[in-house]
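Dear colleagues,

For the upcoming journal club I promised to circulate an example of a predicted protein-ligand complex. I picked one with nicotinamide-adenine-dinucleotide because it came up in last month's discussion. The inputs are reproduced below in full, followed by the predicted structure.
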Amino acid sequence: MIIIPERDIAGLVSAADCFMAVEQTFESMARKSARNFPVIREAIGHADALYGFKSGFDRESLALGLKSGGYWPHNAQKGLTNHQSTIFLFDAETGRCRAIVGGNLLTSLRTAAASAVSIEHLARPDSKVLGIVGAGHQSVFQLRAALDQRPFEKVLGWNKTPEKLERLASVAREKGLPFQSVSLEQLCGEADVIITITSSFGPVLAEGMIRPGTHLACMGTDTKGKQEIAAEIVAASTVFTDEVEQSTSIGEAQHAFRLGMIDTAAIVPIGDVIAGGHPGRRDPQEITLFDGTGVGLQDLAVASAAVELALARGTAIEVDA
Ligand code: NAD
């Protein structure tokens, strides 16, 4: 059995590795070769923690396993990240545990890879201005991965507490790009691509704010009740997602779906676009929206990539199991 501890992930797996793994997974899901199993998420009644599993199987890559972990809100006081996760991979032929892989950084990388895949396949090719709404832990990964997909010329950022935007400004500086802290109105008025990555439970972007031709990657809403944009924006967009069932239950489309403003048949799995079964953006004036809800197969894909890279470099820790 192989162990890849959290501390080894940063030097092992790049954003580009995760992009490829996640893109391939979405395509495999569209071909019905890969399936996510029902998610378990429970309040454990201790340390105010939420704990659960996301699991699945990809018959093409033979990635089988689960991500186990959750949210421990008091971890920050202990110098630990509040989100904690570990990925377990199993041999699809025998069921034996193949690998245990630290899942914290990989979760951020696979989440950023999902919105990057959506930008690659759905944003206008001439997109020049990138807007980021939210400046929490995930935002920096989102920014880095997005900047690889188009030759952006400027980054705009908005956060409830603008001081936090410095972490995004510093990434933009590192990439030689101008960064501006702006109002939501200015961000929506100028950005060609907007990533929302907040933990909001109410619309941050209101009806009428989004310009025609914008690509929106809504990445923060991954739980029932969360919401980043008005349901009217969802209804007015062509909606793409990682998994339709999650999009209407825990994703950004849940509100428009509940209000009868969008039908499941209108929501396109992004894998269909990657596989060539759907054209994606049809018109430069169209608003495309990617509802990234986060699926277990993404975790298995990036953990499998980490294992292959560690084996190829001879850095994998192997133990008898
Ligand atoms: P974080 O706690 O580090 O940051 C939260 C951000 O949300 C901050 O910028 C904060 O200012 C902003 N925010 C909170 N409430 C807001 C409100 N009412 N209005 C506007 N902004 C508000 O969180 P994070 O780790 O960066 O994660 C951000 C979100 O992404 C969370 O909801 C998390 O669950 C989600 N997430 C999604 C996926 C996925 O696959 N889609 C994966 C990981 C995390």
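Two points we might discuss: Residues 10 and 225 are 33 Å apart (CA to CA). The chain has two domains: 2-107+297-318, 123-294.

See you all on Thursday,
B. R.
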